[in-house]
Design goal:
- The complex is a heterodimer of chains A (333) and B (323).
- With 333 residues, chain A is of the alpha/beta class.
- Helix content of chain A is 44%, strand content 11%.
- Chain A has one domain (15-86, 115-308): Thiamin diphosphate (ThDP)-binding fold, Pyr/PP domains (Rossmann fold, 3-Layer(aba) Sandwich), CATH 3.40.50.
- The termini of chain A are far apart.
- Chain B has 323 residues and is an alpha/beta fold.
- Chain B is built from twelve helices and 14 strands.
- Chain B has helices at residues 6-20, 44-48, 60-72, 91-98, 101-104, 134-138, 151-163, 212-224, 242-252, 267-279, 301-307, 311-321; strands at 3-5, 24-28, 53-55, 76-83, 114-119, 144-146, 168-173, 180-182, 195-198, 203-207, 229-233, 236-238, 255-262, 288-292.
- In chain B, helix 10 (267-279) links the parallel strand 13 and strand 14 (288-292).
- The longest helix of chain B has 15 residues, at 6-20.
- Classes of the chains: A alpha/beta (333), B alpha/beta (323).
- The interface between A and B is large, with 45 and 40 residues.
């Protein structure tokens, strides 16, 4: 899977816009570094799947979507939630299992929801969120809404039956879904070539007659541009669209992954393409950011992350008496 | 009250709901022009058109999952799964998403979805179309399970399911489709209320879905032996009307639970446990269970009959309680 084949992409960018993208990527990076540290300290339990290395995708994609669009993500969704505008404190508190968490401590790292921002999870059955996204889009279409449902999933999901069924149904019914595959090269330990007879994943969508593209997922501008183009097509009523972002997770699948399946040299090669470092290099080259500005941004982000930990620490536990709450919807009488 | 069949009652409920609420639509395999594998939706395609009566490709997991998404997105979908055995292809969506979404989102999302499917044996359809797994679904918190056994309930419980804010699975025992009965009146039904279908003082026969006619036939036969059986129709397995079970057993002091599930791990076991916990001192004999034999459903009629509960087996089980 070479990235060299993808067309180079460097559209002009405004300074403020560039700073917003950079700040969001930095926020996700520092926030997740802090979650790793809090995990090691025993404050976060269960699984913790960090997005480090893949930040350009969520940040670039959200920038090209509107508040009315719906987001469906996976268990590796902290970055998407932050980029969508879910407050860092609500996310950290959720990971701490506190009642002020975005899912009231019922979901944890893998199940983050914020209905007010149309952020619909946080799905941890691989590919399980894809039919759900198709259904949201069906509801929009039947109700005459011109909204997009953006559905994120990984390369592993592309091997699941529900992926193929969903491509077929969305295409048949011309549903407004934007499928976004974050191809980070591994389904836990299994490399692309061991999972897929056709490792050019975006070609699979072509079989269902979806327009599809492979995009450099390490380049936030390339992501933003591709998503803007795809979302416009979906919003026009031209049916679903498929984007495959080629990316890499710099960390293990989850915490404590010994990563016997890949060479350190391979990780190092990809780390040279770190989306944050690359973007800073580009902006510096073009005179769009200074070291002083970056340092100020880092301080600002560090404060936000520190405050999120404080909110999580101070947050109350959901009372055990409420254990069976929210299994069913309360009704009158 | 007008007479109609169970099949017509289900169709009438769907028609009524779709006429009253533009958010209601039906999707599933062959539900359109074909009218459904069991002819339940016959005529609805002509009446409501392809937008609201949607034929899906064969993809149980995805069309149930799409139903969940559409429900969260503001619609009121009815998803028809052809048979309960096929619903296992959608088990992931039902258990991991529909049932869990409200809780794992901290109460932010509700899933007003109705999934209907044909269940049960007795039709010579062998080991992949004949089972009764309602109790598996009733095991799962977050969903509700309705098992209408009468024509009125076929309509009324489906309307109640559609009015419910949470996912409801409706199991239509396929042997009941041609059964005639009285239409429901206009009083809305409530999920979670059992009904005494026949009063009696000597033994409570607890049944649901396709076992109800067998239980009533058994009660007739027992009456000839001067055993007055009370027949309690559970109507919904979740929520379960525990108080109705306890009240009836407290009156009769004997219980036979009829269940088309395989005996091991059957829902009848749950009912027996509840009676033990709540009414142990009322019992004059151990709770009896009449369930299916421990075998994938055989095709041959004598073998299938032998595998399923029957009125005769219920009578025998009741009689043993008094011997």
């Amino acid at each position: 899977m070479t990235l060299e084949r993808l067309p180079p992409h460097a559209p002009a960018i405004e300074r403020d816009h560039a700073h917003q993208l950079l700040r969001q990527m930095l926020l996700i990076r520092r926030f997740e570094e802090r979650t790793e540290e809090r995990y090691a300290a025993g404050k976060i339990r269960g699984f913790l799947h960090v997005y480090i290395g893949e930040e350009a995708i969520a940040v670039g994609a959200m920038r090209s979507l509107t508040d009315d669009d719906a987001i469906v993500a996976t268990y590796r969704e902290h970055g998407h939630a932050l980029a969508r505008g879910v407050p860092a404190g609500a996310l950290m508190a959720e990971m701490f299992g506190k009642a002020n968490g975005c899912s009231r401590g019922r979901g944890g790292s893998m199940h983050m929801f914020d209905a007010s921002r149309r952020f619909y999870g946080g799905h941890a059955i691989v590919a399980g969120g894809i039919p759900f996204a198709v259904g949201l889009a069906l509801a929009d279409k039947m109700q005459g809404q011109s909204r997009v449902t953006a559905c994120f999933f990984g390369d592993g999901a592309v091997a699941e039956g529900e992926f193929h069924e969903s491509m077929n149904l969305a295409a048949l019914w011309k549903l407004p879904v934007l499928f976004m595959c974050e191809n980070n090269q591994y389904a836990i330990s299994t490399p692309l070539a061991t999972s897929h007879s056709e490792p050019d994943l975006h070609l699979k969508a072509r079989a269902y007659r979806l327009p599809s593209e492979a995009v450099d997922g390490m380049d936030v501008c390339a992501v933003e541009t591709a998503v803007a183009r795809a979302a416009a097509s979906v919003r026009r009523g031209d049916g679903p669209y498929f984007l495959e972002f080629r990316t890499y997770r710099f960390r293990g699948h989850s915490m404590g992954d010994p990563q016997r399946y890949r060479a350190k040299e391979e990780v190092a090669q990809w780390e040279k393409r770190d989306p944050i470092v690359q973007f800073i290099d580009r902006l510096a080259r073009e005179g769009l950011v200074t070291d002083v500005e970056i340092a100020a941004m880092e301080r600002d982000v560090a404060n936000e992350v520190a405050w999120s930990v404080e909110e999580a620490e101070q947050g109350p536990w959901e009372p055990v008496e409420d254990l069976e709450k929210d299994v069913y919807t309360p009704t009158d009488g | 009250m007008a007479k109609l069949t169970y099949r017509e009652a289900v169709r009438a409920a769907m028609r009524e709901a779709m006429a009253a609420d533009p958010r209601v639509f039906l999707m599933g395999e062959d539900v359109g022009l074909h009218g459904g594998a069991f002819a339940v939706s016959m005529g609805l395609f002509e009446e409501f058109g392809p937008e609201r009566i949607r034929d899906t490709p064969l993809m149980e997991s995805t069309f149930v999952g799409a139903g969940i998404g559409a429900a969260v997105g503001g619609m009121r979908p009815i998803v028809e799964v052809m048979t309960i055995n096929f619903s296992l292809l959608a088990l992931d969506q039902i258990v991991n998403t529909a049932a869990a979404l409200r809780h794992m989102s901290g109460g932010q999302l509700s899933v007003p979805l109705v999934v209907r499917m044909a269940s049960g044996g007795g039709r010579g359809l062998a080991a992949q179309h004949s089972h009764s797994l309602e109790g598996w679904y009733a095991h799962v918190p977050g969903i509700k399970v309705a098992t209408p056994a009468t024509v009125a309930d076929a309509k009324g419980l489906l309307l109640a399911a559609l009015a419910d804010p949470d996912p409801v699975l409706v199991f239509e025992h396929a042997t009941l489709y041609p059964m005639e009965g009285e239409d429901a009146d206009d009083t809305p039904m409530t999920l979670g209320r059992a009904a005494v279908r026949r009063a009696g003082d000597d033994v409570t026969i607890i049944a649901y879905g396709g076992s109800l006619p067998k239980a009533l036939a058994a009660a007739d036969a027992l009456a000839a032996e001067e055993i007055a059986a009370e027949v309690l129709d559970l109507r919904t397995l979740r929520p379960l009307d525990v108080e109705a079970i306890v009240a009836s057993v407290a009156k009769t002091h004997h219980a036979v639970v009829v269940d088309e599930m395989w005996r091991t791990g059957s829902f009848a076991g749950e009912i027996a446990a509840i009676i033990m916990e709540r009414a142990f001192d009322e019992l004059d004999a151990p709770v009896a269970r009449v369930a299916s034999a421990e075998v994938p459903m055989p095709y041959s009629k004598p073998l299938e009959d032998a595998a399923l509960p029957s009125a005769e087996k219920i009578v025998a089980a009741a009689r043993r309680l008094f011997s």
